[in-house]
Design goal:
- This protein is mainly alpha-helical and 432 residues long.
- The chain has 2 domains: 210 residues, no CATH class; 181 residues, no CATH class.
- 82% of the residues lie in helices and 0% in strands.
- Helix 5 packs antiparallel against helix 7.
């Protein structure tokens, strides 16, 4: 009976649905990365990761901001017609962004990855434009109950299977990209079957309605996105494709934490306008700490042999980068930014993100000279900690909400000590 109740709650609770989807999505990316690393030479893996970086740089500044702006508008997000139109808005925006990348590649590619061309870029842009609407569907409540579970399973196994099938058909990078494009086409078609037919999309009207909330979030996304991609941009300019692949495989945030944190942070935005929702936020974030941090510590401790086993000997050096990024999880389960978004303080999010970007640039450049690839990752860690500390101080001063109202401080500090100990132990035992 307990298991049946848990399953029923999972199907009904929108927060858990989104968290499950995000967990499956990020785990699916890792599984496909294993297939790619085992199939392609490390130089071609580096090219693939550069394509992924270019796709991110062309979409991050509007995709997350539009979604959060939409969720923050209670009137718009409750309209089924508006939800369906929003899916098409994402598709058109994705194709527009990817078209700009292709048309301007002679300027943008040297700027993004210090290369004049990238193999498979035309296949990649089609995949990127089609997959974005699939990724946002669960956040909109478009897929509920069993449909959300099925889509979660699809994004879990779909990327790896499509990469493997594509490579078996055409054993090179183009084959992998063809497989991913097929995966995105099927996913988008599935999402469309759950949308309402809209005769007049009126996308311009929707953008006008969302713009007051969205533009500060967009500026915030630009600053945060640049800060979080500055490290790989730096690697692309100072190292070759093989080193780029090693860094990118290490510079991955832990899917369990990313999924649960992103799902909770986004879905709580409509609730946090009221102080009554703070207890729910604190309770859920503390529960996530108890679930996630012991797993993170275990993975951190044994990451060197795990990387060597799953990805190959060539990727063992990625383990140190990965462990540094795992320390970022200490900032990801604290959610002052959700409170600020819910209460309309998005402009201050942008200002603080600019300061984070400055800290990241200075720290990464300085530490690169002393620690190489690991130094770049350390710079990102310093910037994340700085940003979260400033956000916590802001929420305290502006709204009178203390850290104790957002998380359980004793639990957090205990887990911080545990993760730092695991990091040092792994470094000592495996010599990374």
């Amino acid at each position: 009976m307990t298991r049946m109740k848990s399953t029923f709650l999972l199907l009904k609770d929108p927060v858990r649905q989104v968290q499950l989807f995000m967990l499956c999505r990020h785990t699916g990316v890792i599984l496909s990365s294993i297939v790619i690393a085992r199939s392609l030479p490390i130089e071609e893996v580096g090219v693939f990761e550069m394509l992924m970086l270019c796709g991110y740089l062309m979409t991050f500044f509007w995709s997350d901001a539009l979604l959060k702006g939409f969720l923050a508008d209670a009137k718009v997000k409750s309209d089924k017609i508006a939800v369906s139109a929003f899916i098409w808005l994402y598709l058109f925006a994705g194709f527009a962004a990817m078209a700009i990348l292709v048309i301007g590649q002679k300027v943008l590619l040297p700027l993004f990855v210090d290369r004049t061309s990238l193999q498979g870029i035309h296949l990649f842009i089609l995949y990127q434009a089609l997959i974005i609407p699939v990724w946002i569907a669960p956040f909109l409540g478009l897929l509920k109950g069993q449909n959300a579970i099925l889509l979660s399973i699809y994004v879990l196994v779909g990327p790896a299977i499509s990469c493997y099938a594509g490579f078996r058909s055409l054993p090179e990078l183009s084959g992998v990209l063809i497989g991913l494009l097929s995966y995105a086409l099927v996913g988008f078609a599935w999402v469309l079957t759950n949308t309402t037919f809209v005769r007049k999309l009126q996308l311009g009207k929707m953008l006008v309605a969302l713009w007051p909330v969205t533009w500060p979030l967009m500026m915030y996304s630009v600053s945060v996105g640049i800060a979080r991609s500055f490290d790989v941009w730096l690697v692309a300019r100072h190292f070759d494709e093989s080193s780029f692949a090693i860094f990118r495989y290490g510079a991955r945030e832990f899917p369990l934490v990313v999924a649960f944190a992103a799902g909770l942070s986004t879905v709580m935005i409509p609730k946090l306008f009221s102080s009554d929702a703070l207890d729910e936020l604190r309770s859920r974030s503390t529960r996530l700490m108890h679930i996630c941090y012991p797993v993170v510590a275990f993975v951190m401790l044994f990451s060197p042999p795990l990387f060597e086993y799953f990805f190959g000997v060539a990727y063992k050096e990625s383990a140190l980068i990965f462990n540094i990024y795992l320390l970022l999880t200490l900032t990801q389960l604290v959610f002052p930014q959700s409170i600020m978004t819910a209460r309309g303080e998005t402009r201050w999010l942008w200002y603080i993100s600019l300061a984070e970007l400055a800290v990241n640039v200075v720290a990464s450049v300085l530490l690169l000279s002393y620690f190489g690839l690991a130094g770049i990752a350390m710079g990102t860690l310093i910037a994340f900690v700085f940003e979260k500390a400033v956000l916590i101080i802001f929420v305290r001063r502006r709204f009178g909400i203390s850290l104790d109202a957002i998380i359980h401080p004793l639990s957090w500090f205990a887990y911080a000590a545990m993760l730092i100990a695991a990091f040092m132990t792994s470094k000592w035992i495996f010599g990374i």
